[in-house]
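Tokens for ROK family protein. Go.
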Amino acid sequence: MSGKERLLVRGAQGDLLRLVATGHAESRAQLARVSGLAASSVSLRVEELIDTGLLVEEGSGTSSGGRRPRKLRVSPTAGLLAVADLGAHHARLGLLDLSGVPLVVEERACDIALGPEATLDWMASAFDDLLLAHGPAGVPLRGVGTGIPGPVDPGSGRVVSPSRMPGWNNFPVAEYLGAHYDLPVLVENDANLLAVGEARSWPGFGNLMVLKAGSGIGCGVIVDGRLHRGRGAAGDISHVRVRTDSSTMCSCGHPDCLEAYASGAALMDALSGLGIATRRPSDVVALVENGVPEATALVRNAGRLIGEVLTVLVNFLNPDAIVVGGSLSTAEPLISAIRAAVYERCLPLATRDLEIAVTRGGPDAALLGAGSLLLDAVLS
Ligand SMILES: [Zn+2]
């Protein structure tokens, strides 16, 4: 199995490595232009990075058309990142190289209700399995990251007042994983990871609201191409109060939060009350697709309530797109109800070029987002 090793690069070296890893530069000239460093200084540091085996140069030599420019790439042996996206009942886990390219991604059943220690120990042993089976010999693990389906304090990496995660409140996830791995650790809200990963699929869209509609309901906000964390809870729309005929108490102790009506967990509870059993949010989508009217009505109502919350946010932030992901996102009535509410109620200037669409980034978007943020942590 591969070992683990902290990546030791100095500030400007780390910046150059990051620019190559993220595809922002692939030559010394581009590095100088993008970083603003002097060409001589860039050349010196690139040579050091090549000497230490972190960068490689490809395409050197001549071709029939003359000398081809040499391309810088992060070495495939520079290191691995182990990343996970924890859900209520399943997790996606993967190994990425330092350029964020997945070597392997797996989905496994898990149960976060078992509590933080059991879940994080399970995750560590799943990472061990992946490293054993897919980690190239001699390539060290450089960092570990995970998405959490609840609010995360970015300073401490603690989970703060999550819903449906018994035992997790105030648990120091980053500290726990850090003690196990002794490597840079990223702990981030799952909707934020999805937003960062999804943003890669929306070039030219600098401002995004990325909704994650699964067991819970969350939103990640991208402003000017970067994740907006605020104090840590930016984008958390789960406990916004909504307008309804009935009154339902939310797990947070307040009545009529969005989550109490529009999350996958709430929809499953409501269906259960009607005698319709479901095991996970995707079962709700299947019921909608099979034309079960109770499910369709509940999902449409969820979309309307989400849309009403988003109208305020769209008027306020004026995003370029609202992107809807998570396991409920494939339910067509959810998206149409969100669209109807937002287009009807928002200012014309705010909706003129606004796109409302399902995710483009594919099932691994959150893992790719984790890789991108974890690389920042590894290089800082
Ligand atoms: Zn609440």
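The CA atoms of residues 311 and 345 lie 6 Å apart.
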